[in-house]
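To fix ideas, we quote verbatim a fold written out as tokens:
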Amino acid sequence: MVATSAPAVLRPIHPLHAILLAFPLPLFLGALASDFAYSATYQVQWANFSSWLIAGGLLVGAFVVLWALVNLFRSARPRTGRSIAYFVVLLAMWALGFINALVHAKDAWATMPEGLYLSGITSLLALVASWIGYAGFQAREVH
């Protein structure tokens, strides 16, 4: 009899959680790009785009933070430094994103330069959260 091996994928996060985690990074990066466009052109519509992209990132990001919090306390396995760091980075991303939304709620001219800086930091935190969240996806052979 011939033994075949099939790759198995370990998924430390639920597939729906992974789908939700895919949204904050491009939304916050889009807001950063819109802030750069506004700082270069001073067309008010770019500031409006940033506001909407930040709102979308916060909406989906809230579900990701909530899911990570539930997983932190629901998990039967002991809490690891990775899961705690993941939750803390997500929470910091959401909190700075909320502050960024408040900054972008001001007049378009008044959002610069702190709106641009906050968008950059929020995008970086979204990248780190995605990196930590997806880092557990590993392929291995099953014998």
Q: What stands out?
A: The chain has five helices and two strands. Residues 12-137 form a domain with the Four Helix Bundle (Hemerythrin (Met), subunit A) fold (CATH 1.20.120).
